[in-house]
Amino acid sequence: MKKKNLILILFVACSTFVFSQTTFTLTSSDLGGEATLTQEFGGFGCSGENKSPQLSWKNAPKETKSFAVTMYDPDAPTGSGFWHWVVFDIPANVNELVTNAGNIALHLAPKGAIQSVTDYAIRGFGGPCPPVGHGFHQYIITVYALKTDKLGLNENTNPAIVGFTLWNQTLAKASIVTYYKR
Questions:
Q1: What burial class does residue 154 get, using C-beta atoms within 10 Å of its C-beta: 0-12 exposed, 13-18 middle, 19+ buried?
Q2: What gap in Å lies between CA 171 and CA 176, rounded to an integer?
Q3: What is the pTM of this model?
């Protein structure tokens, strides 16, 4: 009986180790379930502060050579959604974007990272600004672990091309979703 219990304990211990592998995870210290006026766009009929949220990630695959971050609103009444932030060529040794890193003028993004144009036709972060009365929109913020150190794109590359290139280079991705309405 003692031998069976010992075997059972060893089996449980080993399976716990095998199945407790950590997953690629994205978090934010200043963004909750709903975005606020801090993140809301400052223009396009909105009067927010347009500060990109702090983001951090962990447990990327060992093969990761760079990262990218996007923010997308699938609920925008455009027929194709709306891209609010597109950042790529983030070095593999970086695991955080600080608050307001999306403000190009402040140079808070990691050295070498490229912030390309959004659907606002600006570079950097463009916060939520859903139409008044349109209800809650979801904003999907995703970090991509990539198998290349450079995507070979520049700051003028549109979000659809960046998205296609990310699809082809992604090892893993993690997302958080926040909501906003006006």
A1: exposed
A2: 18
A3: 0.88
